[in-house]
Amino acid sequence: MQAAKKQDAQVYTFTVFPEFLNYAGTLFGGKLLSEMDLAASNCARRALYGSGCDGLVTAHVGEVNFLTPAYLGDIVELHTDVLEWGNTSVKVGIKAIKEEVNGQRRTICDAFFVFVALQKGKPFKHKLKPVGP
């Protein structure tokens, strides 16, 4: 089993535009989850570099907590980090933080995503193990 490369926390950012709003005028939860999935998958992909896998898929989304809404013009930062390694999987934690036009910052959502490493379209035992701090 080889040691995984130490992954620093990663940040992905987007701005809330009108087309991202729901009928209540807040960021649509489905849009936020879609962006969170993209950010978490990029984190998992980078963590799997050198493992021999040629892709990955989202297998599970868990413990999604919508805490407060985001509004038009807010900047949303998605902070990701690898939490756990399985035989074929990697679990990524993610936190969404909004930055309002006045600079105030608040956590709006958190969750975890589990990805399965693939090779030729089938689950792949990546043989990576966590790296200590």
Query: Kindly, what is the distance between the CA atoms of the first and last residues, rounded to a whole number of angstroms?
Result: 18 Å
Main sheet summary: 6 strands, antiparallel
Provide the succession of SSEs. EEHEEEEEE
Radius of gyration computed on alpha carbons:
16 Å
Number of strands: 8
- Shape designation: elongated
CATH topology: Thiol Ester Dehydrase, Chain A
Query: Treating each run of at least 4 consecutive H or I residues as one helix, how many helices?
Result: 1
CATH homology-level superfamily: Hotdog Thioesterase
Strand content: over 45%
- Helix/strand-derived class? mainly beta
Which class in CATH terms?
A: Alpha Beta
* Low-confidence runs of at least 5 consecutive residues: none
Helix content: 10-25%
The protein's oligomeric status is single chain
Mean pLDDT: 92
Domains counted in the coordinates: how many?
1
CATH architecture type: Roll
Structural summary, described in words:
The protein is mainly beta. The chain has one domain: Hotdog Thioesterase (Thiol Ester Dehydrase, Chain A). 14% of the residues lie in helices and 46% in strands. It contains 1 helix and 8 strands; from the N terminus they run ββαββββββ. The strands form 2 sheets. Strands 2, 3, 4, 5, 6 and 7 form a 6-stranded antiparallel beta sheet that branches. Strands 1-8 form a two-stranded parallel sheet. Strand 4 and strand 5 (89-99) form a beta hairpin. The chain is elongated. The two termini are 18 Å apart.
List keywords for this structure.
six-stranded antiparallel β-sheet; mainly beta; 14% helix; two-stranded parallel ribbon; 8 strands
